[in-house]
Design goal:
Strand 9 (about 225) and strand 10 form a beta hairpin. The longest helix is centred in the first third of the chain and has 19 residues, at about 10-25. This protein is of the alpha/beta class. The relative contact order is 0.15. Helices cover about 30% and strands about 20% of the residues. It contains eleven helices and 15 strands.
Length: about 325
Amino acid sequence: MRLLRILAFPIALLYGMAIYIRNALYDWGLFRSREFQTKTVSVGNLSVGGTGKTPMIEWLIKHIPSSYKLAVVTRGYGRKSSVPILADPEHTSEDIGDEPKQLITRFPDLCLRIDGDRRRAIQWLEEQVKPDIILLDDAHQHRRIRPSLGVLLTTYDNLYTEDYFLPTGSLRDSRREARRAACIVVTKCPSEMTLQKQQEVLRKLNPGKGQEVFFATLQYDEILHGAKTLSIHELRDRPFTLVTGIAQPKPLASFLRSKGLDFKHLKYADHHQFSEKEVEKFKKIVELLLTEKDYARVGHLLPNASYIRIAHKFLEEGGSRFLDLLGIKKQNASI
């Protein structure tokens, strides 16, 4: 793998040059970025995936008070339709994409607009819904929109400052574009992260003046959902198969092993579209555990499947400071 990355370095240089030119054209005003009257909060990253954008959108939906009229815009990656859709729980993952399906299942009353043209989606929402806040999923690199605030995610074990352009690394945008974010959230941190470790990460990130950095860890729900509801501890005496079609399954597998669970792990690529043959194979497995995103795609076909939920948890009351930065009045003093 290392040899392949070295051989791909010339391609990464060409890719990086194209990204640099594109961003420069926006910086110089030759390409136009549009601002909107409604407060827009972009949640994104500089890499190809696995930083926890959807769980961060979920965190915001849960913690933004109901006094705010909220809407979410996403392009619906992987869906078969290309027309704009206002999602509802009856839509399938083929209609709207696996992550939007996950969102609308978790939050059935959510105003969720699926559209590859984010400008058009925001304009439609301003005319038809008039929300107070619009959350833009995976929009940091989409320069046609200038959000009110940008939230940039990067993972603890793969900071963007130590990454490289595709295909040598996983960066799809330049490191210097981090400067456009109002804050950086370092995700998937150790739950007992020391202040010394936080300072080490801050030195590596070298945030801009006034740019805040927050630290968050992943929290796994110990109650499994799906065709049946059970405690994760009930799996200790029942070997099962874990199926993942996500960018970074390692943290989940490590969590399950830390609980003393014995399982077989079937790994697939992020957003993998499971074939009929694979689904039939899964049906023959006695105990099946999926991620919530994978369950959004094929859970309705698998009566033997449960799924595990994940959520971000900010370290040291960071969630409260995070909402303060976004200008959101909290219902609770600390989060």
